[in-house]
Amino acid sequence: MPEIKADQTLDCKGLACPMPIVRTKKAMDQLQAGQVIEVQATDKGSIADIQGWAKNTGHQYLGTVQEGDLLKHYLRKSTAAEVKEPKKFPHTISNEELKKKLASGEKVKVLDVREPAEYAFNRIPGAKSIPLGELESRMGELTPEDEIHVVCRTGNRSDMACRLLAEKGFKHVKNVEQGMSEWTGPVEQNHEKMEADPL
Amino acid sequence: MSTKVAIIASNGGLFDAYKVFNIATASAATDAEVAIFFTFEGLNLIHKEAHHQLPLPAGREHFAEGFKNANIPSIPQLVEMAQEMGVKIIACQMTMDVMNLKEEDFIEGIEVGGAVTFLDFAKDANVSLTF
After folding, report:
1. Which of A12, A120, A159, B58 could form a disulfide with A190 if both were Cys (CB 3.0 to 4.6 A apart)?
2. Is the CB of A15 less than 8 angstroms away from the CB of B71?
3. What number is the ipTM of this complex?
């Protein structure tokens, strides 16, 4: 199965409560906003604890992959800027409209600019993944004439991605306004043994 | 504002110590502001020598192995972690006087205070616990 990309891996195997949480907190303090950490633990209580911890500290719990006794929890460090910035790109589409388009069977191109670990746990079926940080260098994978629907978690990163694409000559890009945090349409994920954040 | 957790530790066994310090470190790691008031036998949990060898309850000595097998950190390790994360430790002056204990008898970095010292912290706590 494909590995989920993380900026840091933290080994908490064999540690009992509250150590996985204490170690996660310390490691998270060292990360940059927006980075993703993979916490490896064998403490079964950590599945619930990590989610509760993220909820109370404001960080984003992405999900957990279980491999035998090993639990891999994925978290993304929250950014102060996640307090919604005004979006600037004029061409947008609402979640509802995109959902209808997808349901109609129309061939719809969706570009997901979140981190690979976020994409791994819940994404619009068929969406292509290019994280915002790699967009400029990987633009060649996209066709400038296509109508591209750009999505992230809340519409901020995708807003930046849309502006970047438009600048480079893409003519029909649209920012998906609310993003995955409010997506109610169909989703897919990488593996079967995954517990995704119940959005 | 962050969550405030106020804990009273009034018992001196190993089980009591884990209840107190697990909740305290977990809270501190979750960005809560934590204070523990150690009173009566609870003072054992921060006594320089005593906190290295806290007793298991009578008839429960066999759990020592369970702690080892489950790779549970020792109480001194948990205390250190708690302090590192800013958990405030308050020793009860009145009990110290009764038991003839001095501040030097305890681990470093503690405060000594009376009931009001704790109450002042606990009055607007979101979580209050007694062990």
Report:
1. A120
2. yes
3. 0.83
